[in-house]
Structure prediction request, 424 residues.
Amino acid sequence: MIFYPILRNLIVTKSKFLRLSSTVILPDIDTNYYCNSENSLEIDNNIKLRKGVGDVNRVMNMYKKYKATPISDSSYQIVRENLYKELSFLPNKTHPSVLENVEPQVVREINQKRDFQSHRPLEFSDITRRLNLVRTDKLGHTCGHKSYYFLGELAELEEALIKYTVGKLLQEKFQLVSVPDILPSQVLESCGMTINSDRTQIYSLDPVHHGPDLYLSGTAEMSLAGLLMNTTHTEEALPLKLAAVSRCFRAETSNLIEERGIYRVHQFTKVEMFAVTTPNQSESMLEYLRTTQEELFSPLGFNMRILDMPPHELGAPAYRKYDIEAWMPGRNNYGEISSCSNCTDYQSRRLHIKYVHNDETCYVHTLNGTACAVPRMLIALLETHQDPKGKIYTPEVLQPYMNGKKYIAKNNTVPELKLMKIKR
Prediction:
């Protein structure tokens, strides 16, 4: 079973793990740091840099009330829960090397931009329309707005990308896990997601028909973190490297012209990397995840740049984050295809994922990285490798997963969509 190699070095017994998992446990935020008045200015500045929603002054006042409330008092539990709820709004610390950055810093650039001297590069939507490879219009009767069908050899290319990526990760000794796409709120919020708000990206299931507190996962990172919830690991078992292929559901919309077509959709397939480390290992693990991404993407032939992201682009959980943007010649613009983040102990304190160091129980660090987000990868591939005669060159590393096909041609197996007016 896949769970044995992942959890074989757990110290928590199975019965204890199940008992803990069935109980909602408060996050164990570091009150020694966040409730220390000497750190309030530093925390407040970090909130402003991160564009966070936390209020450190409110935290300090609630902490005073919490310390002044006897455990025997009937209001103690409510005061404690309110304090930790307020603490959970605070963002993670920020890596010192990016504190002063206002804009993303280019770390390096990989592959040259293709020189289209013979013809003007077409955009993904134009290419796929000519080759009858995608359906994105009039899908309301099936999957609705911001969805798609990949047809013919483009669907094969999607599978090729996934198989290529998974194969590389297995070579890197990642352990593959098949994950659920429906999760409870505690896992999502512990990973740093906002639910049940006007700005949420999370789809919620109808509580009347499906039961309360069920949501669609936005990334396999959440499921992998949830798998390890309430577990304690031996130090020798770390770092732990997991990978998963999943559907990602996001209720986000955009009117930006740069994010048209399949660039931002409500569901897509993604291969995710997730790592669990000791605190001393996490910074080097982030560099390893970034290097793994570079090694995965470089042979695909498109130009890309690696960005060290400034504080306001980190989100609440990340301590440091790299983005990778691919040049999309048909759009004449860069588009984000991947990122990797070091979340330090932000998620592990909320999910209670620990390890034993010198007979002391400590919190692990968690990291995540996108190994392949299919739609945007396809945009970069098709726009970069388009041929003026109408074909798409298949990168050599993907050809073994495409039955040796060197080119993608027009799809004639599925009829083209023709809209007809119906007279009443």
Observations:
- Residues 152-171 form the longest helix (20 residues).
